[in-house]
Amino acid sequence: MALLNIDQLSVHFGDEGTPFKAVDRISYSVKQGEVVGIVGESGSGKSVSSLAIMGLIDYPGRVMAENLLFNGQDLTRISEKERRNLVGAEVAMIFPGPDDQPQSLLYRWLSDYGSHQGTPGAGTRKPVVSERLTC
Fold first, then answer.
1. Is the domain of 84 the same as that of 126?
2. 56 and 105 housed in the same domain
3. For helices 122-133 and 102-116, what crossing angle results, to 10°?
4. Based on the domain organization, do 85 and 121 belong to the same domain?
5. Which of 25, 40, 76, 131 could form a disulfide with 44 if both were Cys (CB 3.0 to 4.6 A apart)?
6. Where is the ABC transporter domain (predicted)?
């Protein structure tokens, strides 16, 4: 079973008569233990699709999907409290700056994530993070 299952995700802005299709029917899944990077040209919908997965698209945006499941849980039907517990702890986005190298950006994020998830002190965290990045 996939940890994240996205099927036919679309995000539209504007009125229903003439919607701007920021994301148009994308589908993918992520298995437990996989690390996924979403790449594409500027304006291709990377951030909008990620924000939709996390439930952070507000009106006038509309999120539609056949399936939007995280760990078997329908993300379109969870409460605000459940969403707050999920976003940041289980699901997150990394926004690179113009000077960031992908490896160092991921290293910093995984180190910080580990400090919140019970990974032992910084001395032991470095080898664990380095091992994850060499997959």
1. no
2. no
3. 130
4. no
5. 40
6. 24-102
Phi-psi region of 17 (alpha: psi -120 to 50; beta: other; left: phi over 0): alpha
Tens of pLDDT along 74-97? 998 889 899 888 887 788 777 666
Q: Which amino acid is at 99?
A: D
Structural domain span for residue 75: 4-93
Average pLDDT over residues 1-17: 91
Taking the model in full, what pTM does it have?
0.69
- Looking at the structure, do residues 58 and 110 belong to the same domain, yes or no? no
Please write the tens of the pLDDT for every residue from 25-39. 999 999 988 877 788
User: What is the spatial distance between Cα 131 and Cα 135, in angstroms, rounded to a whole number?
Assistant: 7
User: What is the average pLDDT value for the chain, to the nearest integer?
Assistant: 79
